[in-house]
Specification:
mainly beta, five-stranded antiparallel beta sheet, elongated
Length: 119
């Protein structure tokens, strides 16, 4: 099990165009052969409800999106199922997606916390 958290931070809000996304955090992790990477729980708060949080595991097709600006969720979503017979290096990406039809701003205090398990 491991935890990942973050905050937008910076000196001023970040403008995001209509329908656009912005990468907030990226890490590289190893998923061993015959192992799964599972998003167990996620807690996030965006001060603007137009934003969704998107968790991706590249190059796997695993994606999780939560809308509504805030949430305390337990998706238990399998992001990677490594059946290759070899260890995989995965780029774990956290993004904010503006679902509004006009530009919106991410607050410096917008934040997230996630728990992952490898089984």
């Amino acid at each position: 099990m491991f935890q990942l958290n973050g905050i937008v931070g910076g000196n001023s809000p970040i403008s995001v165009g209509a329908g656009k996304s912005i990468l907030l955090q990226q890490i590289v992790i190893r998923v061993k052969s015959k192992q799964k990477l599972i998003l167990r729980d996620i807690n996030f708060l965006f001060n603007n409800e137009a934003f969704a949080i998107k968790i991706e595991a590249e190059p796997s097709p695993g994606v999780f999106i939560a809308r509504g600006g805030a949430g305390d969720l337990t998706p238990r979503k399998v992001l990677v199922n490594n059946t290759t017979g070899e260890d995989l290096l995965i780029f774990l990406l956290v993004s904010a997606v503006n679902k509004a039809k006009n530009s919106r701003s991410l607050s410096r205090s917008d934040s997230w916390h996630m728990t992952f398990v490898r089984r």
